[in-house]
């Protein structure tokens, strides 16, 4: 069965033209059959008129000559001049007796029509009907001149005519379809440009534009497409600018919160520990029963300081600016291995020197790694995470090289990092915006059975330019 939902437009239109053409041919064939039937009716009616006039003249001649021995009826002359295959001519008396009859033979070279066509033709046209004309003598009807055509002959002739039309249809229809398909292919050729433009838009190339077309309908589509592409490019640019602004604000808020926690909360915890230690010294001399409470306060303050130290580490990476990207990432991996106690296991491989990269590049790459490790450890349930950082010298990066970051894990396939519904969340979205701000590329792939891989490539020149812009701002 034909799949109309996925069929070619040119083929669909060609098939519709073919169907309409067949209906037109069927209507033409029906028209010719009706006209042929009318022609036959008119011919046998004319023959019946001639036969009746001839018989009336014969009867008048007999009465004028007073010759009762003359042969009547005598249809030889009429039959000789009008006889055709299948045509029958007869005289029928008032009593219903046929006195004389002539019938032409049938053509032997005519193929017999199909039974279905014969039944339909006889039902529609009744080819055996007679043409009857009265024969009058002295004002009284003495009989009838009867003319008819053999139904089998008329049916065979109709089938012969319909067959010729069908032969013409079989020859003309494929040619017509080929011409229509070629014309539609030429007329719809601009739709390929529209499809290619939509494909470019789908891949993120918002600079795609359509040229003007000759057809007004396609030209209107092209104008709307170009307008939507411009609007989409502007909206995406605004969204990227807003997202990057949010990232900057978020980092600033993190730094501010880290300073506040370190300066206020950290000092308060240190003071509590000092007071607990002082209270313990006093309790040793005056009230030994309070030693346990003083030790509990000191332990609680110590635990809170450890928790605060971990929160400060996540809020602000202090080592990136001071130690550089490579050393900061090594410290980050060591911290994850220390806190997770080997489950999962984090590994890192660093190739190349990263001492001269811009500060913004290092900070953004650090945040990307931090987010990816958090997703792999806390959401994907990974048991092994591999981090690879490499500096590549490439001519395509403007001679400044390219930083390639690869993170692979063996987490479950339904993890939030690989789930399409969570894929557009703030985690991966933030990574994409950070990479876009550095002029780089990001690719994330989740395995079918397990594991996921994150690939980030950032040109070093773009990072330096971003750092210059950040300092200028």
From TrEMBL:
Region listing for Disordered, in residue ranges: 405-424
UniProt-listed Enzyme Commission number(s): 2.7.13.3
Signal peptide residue numbers: none
Subcellular location, record wording: Membrane
Keywords, comma-separated and alphabetical: Kinase, Membrane, Phosphoprotein, Transferase, Transmembrane, Transmembrane helix, Two-component regulatory system
Residue intervals of the Histidine kinase domain: 365-462
Catalytic activity: ATP + protein L-histidine = ADP + protein N-phospho-L-histidine
Pfam families linked: HAMP, HATPase_c, HisKA_3
Main localization category: membrane
Top-rank lineage group of the source organism: Bacteria
Keyword Transmembrane in record: yes
TM segment ranges: 13-34, 165-184
Transmembrane helix recorded as keyword: yes
Domain HAMP: 185-237
Protein name: histidine kinase
Lineage start: Bacteria, Pseudomonadati, Pseudomonadota, Alphaproteobacteria, Hyphomicrobiales
């Amino acid at each position: 069965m034909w799949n109309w939902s996925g069929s070619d437009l040119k083929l669909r239109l060609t098939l519709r033209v073919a169907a309409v053409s067949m209906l037109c041919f069927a209507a033409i064939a029906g028209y010719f059959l009706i006209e042929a039937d009318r022609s036959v009716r008119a011919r046998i009616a004319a023959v019946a008129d001639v036969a009746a006039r001839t018989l009336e003249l014969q009867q008048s001649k007999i009465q004028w000559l007073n010759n009762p021995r003359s042969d009547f009826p005598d249809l030889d002359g009429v039959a000789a001049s009008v006889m055709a295959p299948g045509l029958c001519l007869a005289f029928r008396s008032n009593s219903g007796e046929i006195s004389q009859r002539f019938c032409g033979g049938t053509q032997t070279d005519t193929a017999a029509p199909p039974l279905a066509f014969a039944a339909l033709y006889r039902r529609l046209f009744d080819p055996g009907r007679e043409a009857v004309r009265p024969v009058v003598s002295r004002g009284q009807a003495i009989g009838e001149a009867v003319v008819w055509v053999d139904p089998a002959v008329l049916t065979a002739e109709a089938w012969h005519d319909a067959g010729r039309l069908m032969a013409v249809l079989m020859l003309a229809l494929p040619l017509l379809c080929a011409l229509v398909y070629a014309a539609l292919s030429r007329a719809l050729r601009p739709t390929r440009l529209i499809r290619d433009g939509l494909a470019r838009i789908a891949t993120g190339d918002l600079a795609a534009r359509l040229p003007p077309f000759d057809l007004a309908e396609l030209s209107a589509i092209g104008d709307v497409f170009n307008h939507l592409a411009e609007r989409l490019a502007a909206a995406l640019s605004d969204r990227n600018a807003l997202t990057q602004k949010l990232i900057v604000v978020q980092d600033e808020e993190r730094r501010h919160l880290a300073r506040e926690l370190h300066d206020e909360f950290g000092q308060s915890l240190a003071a509590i520990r000092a007071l607990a230690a002082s209270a313990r010294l006093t309790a040793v001399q005056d009230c030994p029963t309070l030693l346990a409470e003083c030790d509990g306060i000191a332990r609680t303050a110590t635990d809170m300081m450890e928790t605060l130290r971990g929160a400060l580490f996540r809020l602000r990476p202090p080592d990136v600016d001071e130690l550089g990207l490579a050393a900061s990432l090594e410290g980050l991996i060591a911290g994850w291995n220390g806190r997770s106690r080997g489950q999962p296991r984090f590994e890192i491989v660093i190739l190349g020197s990263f001492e001269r990269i811009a500060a913004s590049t290092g900070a953004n790459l650090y945040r990307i790694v931090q987010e990816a490790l958090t997703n792999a450890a806390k959401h994907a349930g990974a048991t092994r995470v591999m981090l690879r950082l490499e500096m590549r010298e490439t001519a395509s990066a403007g001679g400044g090289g390219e930083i390639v970051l690869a993170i692979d894990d063996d987490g479950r396939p339904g993890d939030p990092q690989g789930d399409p519904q969570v894929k557009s969340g703030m985690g991966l979205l933030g990574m994409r915006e950070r990479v876009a701000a550095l002029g780089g590329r990001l690719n994330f792939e989740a395995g079918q059975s397990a594991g996921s891989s994150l690939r980030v490539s950032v040109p070093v020149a773009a990072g330096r330019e971003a750092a210059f812009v950040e300092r200028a701002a």
